[in-house]
Specification:
By secondary structure, this protein is mostly beta strands. It contains two helices and 21 strands. The chain has a single domain, classed as Neuraminidase (6 Propeller), CATH 2.120.10.
């Protein structure tokens, strides 16, 4: 429901009918509930090194999911009804390598690519309120299968994967806009476990959206803000909050330079990390830029 209303606001803003400027601030909650979680120090990070800003060669897209396919290729999911797609991007210049559009009945959401036991790859893509998960061929981006999402997952929001370094088992981590992160078996798409995320005051951290594992920690965008939550994936404990508002400011300046329209829906959403090269990329909804960030000091 929240995103449905947000989509209406986006439409009104695009056509100049409505002009709203909002900015979610951190802390997200202030009420203390020591029965849920004891008070503890959460690291707040606002300084980081920007390595480069990469202009998009196509789009911009209403980004809902972003991940590395390999060191040279990104898989990205775009949302909005009638504009949703799944596509591969060149990780260096962001040109579109391959793209498949979704039908107008689908609002594309988080995505992740998983290597199958036979060596092939499958791209999983959530849908917003349709209750479906789309399975795309990892080579052709042709639709292989459409399955039902688990009934406990109210809406499709964000998705990433975690690979057990000892067994090679893959687990998908999925958000639905609440404070919950669902751990799912990609072969059966059944829920194995659920994490609930709370801040240092014991308050729920809600609106968890796009996800990525970065150096063993679970990073989560928060819908409507430009902050990233850094979460312990085994306990659900919030370890840190990273303030990326400066990136949004730079993206907004680029939009102005391109004589395009900016609106308040253009928030941070999209994290991709390549472990072997230690490369981190960030972007946002309708941003004309993708940012490469150094992890030194974070």
């Amino acid at each position: 429901m929240i995103k449905w209303l947000f989509t209406i606001v986006l439409f009104l803003q695009v056509f100049g009918i409505l002009n709203i400027t909002t900015q979610t601030q951190y802390p997200l909650n202030s009420k203390i509930n020591e029965d849920i979680a004891p008070q503890r120090q959460v690291k707040y990070i606002s300084h980081y090194t920007l390595l480069r800003a990469i202009p998009r060669k196509s789009g911009p897209f209403f980004v809902e999911g972003l991940s590395f396919k390999d060191a040279n290729t990104l898989v990205e999911s775009a949302g909005l009804y009638g504009e949703s797609s799944i596509h591969y991007l060149d990780a260096d210049d962001l040109s579109v390598i391959k793209q498949t559009d979704l039908g107008p009945e689908f609002f594309g959401e988080g995505c992740e690519i998983v290597k199958n036991k036979d060596g092939t790859e499958t791209v999983f893509q959530l849908t917003y309120q349709e209750g479906k998960v789309l399975l795309w061929d990892g080579e052709t981006l042709e639709l292989k299968q459409m399955i039902d999402a688990p009934i406990d997952i109210d809406e499709g929001w964000g998705m990433t994967k975690r690979i057990d370094k000892e067994t090679g088992d893959v687990r998908l981590y999925i958000t639905d806009g609440s404070n919950k992160v669902y751990i799912v078996d990609p072969e059966t798409f059944e829920i194995i476990n659920t994490l609930e995320i709370y801040d240092e005051n014991g308050e729920e951290v809600t609106n968890l959206n796009e996800l990525e594992f970065v150096r063993g920690k679970l990073w989560a965008n928060v819908f409507g803000s430009n902050y990233v939550m850094v979460i312990d994936p085994d306990t659900g404990i919030l370890d840190a909050v990273i303030d990326f508002r400066k990136l949004q400011k730079q993206a907004k300046q680029e939009v102005k330079k391109l004589n395009q329209r900016w609106n308040s829906n253009s928030v941070l959403n999209g994290i991709a990390y390549h472990e072997e090269t230690d490369r981190l990329l960030l972007t946002g909804k309708m941003w004309p830029l993708m940012f490469e960030i150094s992890l030194q000091g974070i």
